[in-house]
Structure formats: structure tokens, C-alpha cells
């Protein structure tokens, strides 16, 4: 008898075990996110052999396990496009199976945790053994985020040839290149030279950039953004300082022009990069983030700060973003960005059985941005996570059901 565990605070789960079933899992929920219609009424998804067989209002079957969550919203597994999943080698790293997967995130992109030197270790110790699907934006710096000093503190670490060789050796695991021009990352190194080298790697490898902007007093928005290409992703898009996309209450023209050319914008909440004022002004001006991400890192845990993707989603809803757009920004859109849209991101037949069930709690609570500004609003809480057809076990919660 194998234990199947998840949070005991979720009284909405009803598990039924059957013998001789046709399917492995049937998950019923009060709402289902479908690609064709968006959020629909109650429905279910059936799973067999690690794949989704069907999803929708009419789905019903005999399954080895059935979960009924009438207050839940059934979604594809959440995708965090910017975080720090790393079991070793990164000063920011967290075990994704412990801190991300039980909170609904089944796929995560690492923002520069590993560079060329530590990439084999990252593949062996994080990507390969983790139940969470991990992809990497490889750091242009060959040392990655292995020290508390900035990754580009020494110009020689921005090694174009080493980065290109690492990409060729591990292309399957690498999505793109992480280039952060912040003062901390660059130290006294010329950020323009770092940008030049990052673009050289991106162009020679054919991969996109995950880009952290420089303060505009050093390099104006227009000069930075005009060099980015369609498919490149700007993260920290709702940061208040030292670079803010809002100018006199409106989104900066260079930011809009970049989006029109196909440059994408990601939230990257982190410990210093989300302002309610900036998010509200941008959303009010019709500028929505393409993707919503946490920038979850070790500092959140050491500071005792609760921080996960459902919470960041809740903050975007408090800032005025509509529910459907939020759900797309953590499922379908990042799946497309990661070039995984044929595998994850929708509840479609044949897709990987990565699913999340969230519950919306209307009870207002304090939602705090990275500057201490408070809004009150409801929150999403994860009820159930499925990765590759298997129920995710929360190791910190006692088992409350059994498998026949």
C-alpha cells in the first residue's frame, strides 16, 4: 500500500480507489481551463500512462484514483518562467521538488543559476533527478550564480566561447541565455560589453535572452530595448527602481515599441522587483505581462517570507489583471515561450499529465509588494498537483489517503 499525501487543510478532496480501472486518474473540479473556451464550468480530466486522455465537461471514466474538488479550478501544471531551482552550485538555489512542485509549479526555468563551469553538475544534480521539469537560461558568466559577488564582476567570466560550447553540449536542457545588466551582477564591469557578448552568444546559438535591464540613467530604455529581438524576454517588468517602465503615468514608448517587435515581458517578482504602483499603472494603461514568475530564491526562505507562484498570481489580480489573462500567463503562454507547447500548457489529449488544481479564497488578506506597499485581496491556494501522471506528495504533510 503506497501513501498518497497532500495538504490536510484541503477538505475538498475525495479520493475513491477502484480495482481494474481503465485509467490511472480522474480529476474532477468545479471549473476547468480549456484551450478552446478558457475557463468553463465543472468538468474533469482523465489520465493514463503519464498523458492526458481527455478533458472537459463530459469526461467521466473508471479510474484507479478519482479526486473530486468542487471548489477547485483545474489547470495545466503551472509554469514559472523565472526562478532559481538548483540543488547545488547556486547561492540563490532552492530544491524545486520541495519549494515549487507542491505549490502547483510543474515546470520552472532557472534564471542563470549555472554557467559553463557548473552546467554538468546542474544537469546531473538538478535537471535529471528532480521530479519538477527544469529548463535553464544558462548564465553568460561561466561561473553562474556560484558566489555572492556579481556573476560578471570579472569581465573574463563573460566567456562567449565557453558559453557556446556549453550550449552545444547540453542544448536539450537549455532554453536560452541569462544576461543581467544590474549593478550587482556587473559590479565595475562595463554593462555594454556584457550586453554585446550576450547578444553574440544568442545570435550564434539561435537562442533567446532572458534579460535584466540596466538602470536608465546608465543606458536609456530605447538603447537597451532596440537591441533585443523577437522572442527575447525582459524580466523584472514591474520593478519600481532603478528602472521603471512607467513615465508620467504611462508605459514608456520604448517598452511599447519593443513589445510590438515581439519582445516579451515577464514579472520576476523576487525580493525587490514588484511594485503595486507600477503594476497598476501598467495594467491600467493596457500593458499586461506576457508571463508571471516568482524569481523564487533562497533569500525568501531565509527571511521567512511566504512566496510562491499562486501568491504572485493573486497580487496581479489585486493589481487589476483579469483572471483569464493571469491563468494564461502561467500556463499556455510560458509553454509557448519555452518551446514546450506540444507537451505542456494546455489540458489537451496527448499532452503530458502535468496538472494543478487551485482554489480561489475570497477572504481578503494583506498582499505586500517588495517595497512594503499593501493591497487587500483574495488568494489562490494549491489543492492538488500532478506531475507526469503522478500525484505530488507533500513530504511535510501526513498522508491522508491510500492507493489500492
What's the gist of this structure?
By secondary structure, the protein is an alpha/beta fold.
Specify the biggest β-sheet. 9 strands, mixed
CATH topology descriptor of the largest domain: TIM Barrel
Query: What share of the residues does DSSP label as strand, in percent?
Result: 25-35%
Poorly predicted spans: 1-14, 396-404
- The helical percent reads 10-25%
CATH homology group of the largest domain: Metal-dependent hydrolases
Distance between the termini: 6 Å
Return the CATH architecture of the largest domain.
Alpha-Beta Barrel
Q: Could you tell me the radius of gyration in angstroms?
A: 21 Å
CATH class of the largest domain: Alpha Beta
Structural class, please? alpha/beta
User: Number of helical runs?
Assistant: 12
What is the number of strand segments?
A: 20
Categorize the overall geometry. Answer: globular
Mean model confidence by pLDDT:
92
Detailed description of the structure:
The chain is of the alpha/beta class and 404 residues long. The protein has two domains: 3-76 and 350-360 and 380-402, Urease, subunit C, domain 1 (Roll); 78-337, TIM Barrel, CATH 3.20.20.140. The protein contains twelve helices and 20 strands. It has helices at residues 96-99, 119-127, 160-169, 183-186, 191-205, 221-225, 253-260, 276-284, 298-302, 309-318, 323-328, 332-337, and strands at 3-5, 14-17, 23-34, 38-40, 43-48, 51-56, 63-76, 78-83, 105-111, 133-139, 174-180, 209-212, 233-234, 246-247, 250-251, 264-265, 355-368, 374-387, 390-391, 399-402. The strands form four sheets. Strands 2, 3, 4, 5, 6, 7, 17, 18 and 19 form a nine-stranded mixed β-sheet that branches. β8 (78-83), α1 (96-99) and β9 form a beta-alpha-beta unit. It is globular and about 65 Å long. It starts with a strand and ends with a strand. Residues 1-14 and 396-404 have low confidence and may be disordered.
Amino acid at each position: 500500500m503506497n501513501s498518497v499525501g497532500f495538504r490536510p487543510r484541503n477538505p475538498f478532496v475525495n479520493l475513491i480507489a477502484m480495482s481494474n480501472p481503465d485509467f490511472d486518474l480522474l480529476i474532477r473540479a468545479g471549473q476547468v481551463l480549456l484551450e478552446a473556451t478558457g475557463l468553463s464550468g465543472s468538468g474533469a480530466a482523465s489520465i493514463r500512462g503519464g498523458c492526458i486522455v481527455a478533458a472537459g465537461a463530459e469526461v467521466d471514466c473508471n479510474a484507479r484514483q478519482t479526486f473530486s474538488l468542487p471548489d477547485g479550478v483545474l489547470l495545466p501544471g503551472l509554469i514559472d518562467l523565472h526562478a532559481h531551482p538548483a540543488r547545488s552550485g547556486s547561492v540563490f538555489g532552492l530544491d524545486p521538488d520541495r519549494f515549487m512542485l507542491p505549490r502547483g509549479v510543474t515546470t520552472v526555468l532557472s534564471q542563470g543559476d549555472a554557467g559553463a563551469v557548473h552546467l554538468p553538475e546542474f544537469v546531473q544534480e538538478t535537471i535529471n533527478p528532480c521530479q519538477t521539469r527544469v529548463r535553464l537560461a544558462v548564465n553568460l558568466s561561466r561561473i553562474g550564480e556560484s558566489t555572492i559577488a556579481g556573476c560578471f564582476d570579472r569581465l573574463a567570466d563573460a566567456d562567449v566561447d565557453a558559453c557556446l560550447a556549453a550550449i552545444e553540449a547540453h542544448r536539450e536542457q537549455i532554453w536560452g541565455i541569462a544576461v543581467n545588466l544590474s549593478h550587482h551582477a556587473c559590479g565595475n564591469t562595463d554593462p555594454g560589453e556584457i550586453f554585446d557578448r550576450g547578444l553574440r552568444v544568442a545570435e550564434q546559438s539561435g537562442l533567446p535572452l532572458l534579460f535584466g535591464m540596466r538602470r536608465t540613467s546608465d543606458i536609456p530604455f530605447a538603447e537597451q530595448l532596440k537591441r533585443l529581438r523577437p522572442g527575447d524576454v525582459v524580466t523584472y517588468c514591474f520593478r519600481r527602481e532603478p528602472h521603471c517602465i512607467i513615465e508620467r503615468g504611462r508605459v514608456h514608448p520604448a517598452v511599447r515599441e519593443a513589445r510590438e517587435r515581439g519582445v516579451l515581458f515577464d514579472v520576476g517578482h523576487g525580493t525587490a522587483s514588484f511594485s503595486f504602483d507600477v503594476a497598476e499603472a501598467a495594467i491600467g494603461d493596457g500593458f499586461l505581462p506576457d508571463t508571471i514568475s516568482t524569481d523564487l530564491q533562497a533569500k525568501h526562505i531565509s527571511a521567512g517570507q511566504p512566496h510562491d507562484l499562486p501568491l504572485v498570481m493573486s497580487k496581479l489580480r489585486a493589481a487589476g489583471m483579469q483572471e483569464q489573462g493571469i491563468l494564461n500567463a502561467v500556463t499556455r503562454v510560458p509553454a509557448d515561450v519555452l518551446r514546450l507547447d506540444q507537451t505542456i500548457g494546455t489540458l489537451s489529449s496527448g499532452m503530458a499529465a502535468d496538472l494543478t488544481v487551485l482554489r480561489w479564497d475570497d477572504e481578503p488578506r494583506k498582499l505586500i509588494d517588495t517595497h512594503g506597499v499593501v493591497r487587500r485581496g483574495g488568494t489562490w491556494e494549491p489543492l492538488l498537483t500532478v506531475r507526469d501522471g503522478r500525484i505530488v506528495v507533500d513530504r511535510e504533510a501526513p498522508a491522508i489517503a491510500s492507493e489500492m
